[in-house]
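Researcher: We plan to redesign the surface later, but first we want a full-length starting point. Tokens attached.
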């Protein structure tokens, strides 16, 4: 009697496995690519913790009307914006450990490396403006020394971690890439304009602060102009990098960072609104660029969530694997 029921068992097991697979489908098919190095995850966590702490300190002191940056600034707005960017990007850095492949996080990690190396270089080039050199208050003098030392270590760590990452096996040449959630066609021209705007402003402030600095709609010195230029350059690289990836699943951590940075920046700008010449061309451009960042991040998260809902409705898909041997 039992032999007549035996053939039904495989179908039952198959159905159960299929149901479990359907329940465990995440946003979409996993991104394929180079396996993520643990060194990148560790670096991101360390930088995230430091950015959250130091960024909050700079932003909060700026909101109270005090300039607490590593170098002497004519106004509290510039160090506040640097702090807002640091605090805003920190939550996204903590999510990098959830990724499986490098391609899913490089649109955030590469701009991060630009910030670390760039701010360290700016601090050295403007060493005469550091609080410790200018005889600032004891706390700020010690803070400036710690700022330079910490940035130096983190910049070196970023270079080493990127080297370790690119030693991981790469996808086979000519391997077809299957986008999980391609960027909508209408978004690409807008992203190109937004990314080019940030990139151009950042490059100008960093390379030619004497010319571009006076165009900033509030008072800045050379160190302020170059420090803000580093962040603008990194934002431009990140936004333009999304066009290269052409896949929302590959820029997931960056989509978390962008609106947070824009929101934190907007808060600092709102508190110091009287210090900004909003009627000037640069003031209006800044408002448009910050708004563009926020809209880009929010709309990108919404489109990615919608793509995930469609994937779950369609049923389970084969997940991709990182290329190369698993550790």
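Model: Full-length starting sequence:
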């Amino acid at each position: 009697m039992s032999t007549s029921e035996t053939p039904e068992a495989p179908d039952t097991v198959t159905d159960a496995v299929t149901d479990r697979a359907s329940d465990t489908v995440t946003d979409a098919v996993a991104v394929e690519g180079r396996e993520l190095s643990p060194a990148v995850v560790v670096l991101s966590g360390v930088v995230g913790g430091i950015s959250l702490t130091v960024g909050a300190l700079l932003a909060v002191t700026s909101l109270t009307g005090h300039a607490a940056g590593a170098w002497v600034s004519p106004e509290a707005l510039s160090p506040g914006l640097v702090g807002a960017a640091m605090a805003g990007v920190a939550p996204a850095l903590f999510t990098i450990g959830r990724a499986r492949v490098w391609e899913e996080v490089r649109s955030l990690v590469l701009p991060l490396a630009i910030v670390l190396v760039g701010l360290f270089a700016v601090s050295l080039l403007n060493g005469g403006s550091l609080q410790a050199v200018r005889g600032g208050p004891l706390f700020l003098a010690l803070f400036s020394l710690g700022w330079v030392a910490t940035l130096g270590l983190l910049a070196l760590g970023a270079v080493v971690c990127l080297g370790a990452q690119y030693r991981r096996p790469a996808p086979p040449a000519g391997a077809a890439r299957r986008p999980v959630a391609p960027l909508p066609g209408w978004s690409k021209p807008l992203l190109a304009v937004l990314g080019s705007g940030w990139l151009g402003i950042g490059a100008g402030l960093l390379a030619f602060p004497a010319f571009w600095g006076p165009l900033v709609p509030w008072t800045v010195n050379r160190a302020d102009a170059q420090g803000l230029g580093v962040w603008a350059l990194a934002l431009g690289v990140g936004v333009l990098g999304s066009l290269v990836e052409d896949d929302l699943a590959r820029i997931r951590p960056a989509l978390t960072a962008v609106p947070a940075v824009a929101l934190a920046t907007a808060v600092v700008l709102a508190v110091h609104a009287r210090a900004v010449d909003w009627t000037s061309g640069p003031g209006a451009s800044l408002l448009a660029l910050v708004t563009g960042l926020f809209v880009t991040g929010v709309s990108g998260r919404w489109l990615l969530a919608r793509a995930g809902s469609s994937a779950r409705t369609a049923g389970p898909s084969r997940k991709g694997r990182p290329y190369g041997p698993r550790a």
